[in-house]
Amino acid sequence: LPGLHVFAIAFALEVSVGKTNTVTALNNSNVLLPCVFTTCIGFQDLVFTWYFNSTELIYHGKIKNKATEPTLIWHNPRVEFVGSTTKKDNNISIVLNNVEFSDAGKYTCHVKNPKERNAQHNATIFLTVVHKMVKTDNTVTLIIVGVVGGLIGLLILFMLIKRVVLFIIKKTQDGKKECLVSSSGNDNTENGLAGSKAEQKAPPKA
Fold it and tell me: Does 77 fall in a domain?
């Protein structure tokens, strides 16, 4: 049983980089690398680190508790902390300034919480760095975008209609279920009352 208890605690700490773990940035731009963490029992002297390609440390911070913002221990001069831990989310996102092609790769956001018996968790983002957009013949692009956009629009509209219809069907079914439950409940009550009336009427007949 103690083993299971520790197992449950280890999974209380979670680190997330959002719905998608891939980010594309233009060369020489600044890019946001998002990261938030959640913990069921709170945190004390929590340590978080950002790594580039698993080994190179680019940001190291510490958070005393929920009432305080992180304190910097060490960072790469081009990395800037932009999160906040006193607001709703425990946001430990960073911005990488003046992105170069050599910055493309894997970025890992790692968190360790002493309050949860040093539970650790991490999440990874893959950064791709691209050249600046090349100008093309706008007429062709606009026609393609228009056609594709129209098709996507129709598809989204179809998906929305389908979802609404399914939602209405589900609600109707839920309604029917509720009706069935309540009517069967009424039947039982009526049967019960009818039975009790019959019993009351029975003695005079006898």
Answer: yes
